[in-house]
Amino acid sequence: MPGRRVVFLGPPGAGKGTQAKRVVERLGLLHLSTGDLLRDEVARKTTLGEKAKGYMDRGELVPDRLIIDMISGRIGQAKKGFLLDGFPRTVAQAEALASSTDLDAVVSIDLAREEVVRRLTSRRVCRACGAIYNLTFNLSSETARCDACGGELYQREDDRPAVIENRYDVYEKSTAPLIAFYRQRGLLHSVNGELGSDKVFAEIMRILAA
Ligand code: AMP
Fold it and tell me: Is the CB of 16 under 6 A from ligand 1?
């Protein structure tokens, strides 16, 4: 069976969210983005959201226990398979995941720091439907609205330059070790995130169909 239990790795801004939306639409998987789930908790001012907000605004990782508790029940409900986007982000999270499910593929979308900074400073997100845009690739002006739903576009709090650098540092220190972790387990596939969105998508579909 082609890959139905999939993890996306990669630095912030590499295109995980954009590609995840396309892949789940094509393959009918459950998309679980821990960043989106957390932003929803923050917006609803839940206890978890109140605890997570400070870490997120600083570009730091939310403690493992909170994340694992938030995600594990949802993975169990994904009968037709899942795509994890932004989880795991630490070795402890990867070990917790391994104790609850096998995986079919881990796709690492790689992107260098300079390109991450360039992309994230010009990223805008739809407040209503979560669609992701970039001022330099696919938006004609700062005041444009969402193509899909007409919603308002905003800049994420953590897409400010000082926070972006910190997020890349956190990625290198805490998350990049997962590349070796999954390579050792024979699950890792790497994709060059500098290729255009369509080429990255084609490459991911080729990997998941193999
Ligand atoms: P993202 O949308 O994936 O860039 O995540 C935004 C922020 O949410 C991160 O900078 C972290 O503060 C937090 N976050 C998301 N996923 C995780 C995770 N797996 N572990 C810890 N913190 C996370």
Answer: no
Chunked into runs of 10 residues, the chain (210 residues) has average pLDDT values of: 83 96 95 96 97 96 98 90 97 97 97 94 93 85 88 93 94 98 98 96 94
Is there an atom of ligand 1 within 6 Å of 41 CB? Answer: no
| Domain boundaries, given as residue ranges, for the chain | 5-209
pTM over 0.90? The answer is yes
**Candidate from 32, 42, 56 with most ligand 1 atoms within 8 A of CB, to mutate:** 56
31-57 residues labelled b (16+ CB within 10 A) or e (exposed): bbbbbbbbbebbeeeeebbeebbeebe
Whether 193 and 180 have beta carbons less than 8 Å apart is answered as no
Nearest CA to ligand 1 atom 11: 61
Task: Please provide the CATH number assigned to the domain covering 5-209.
Answer: 3.40.50.300
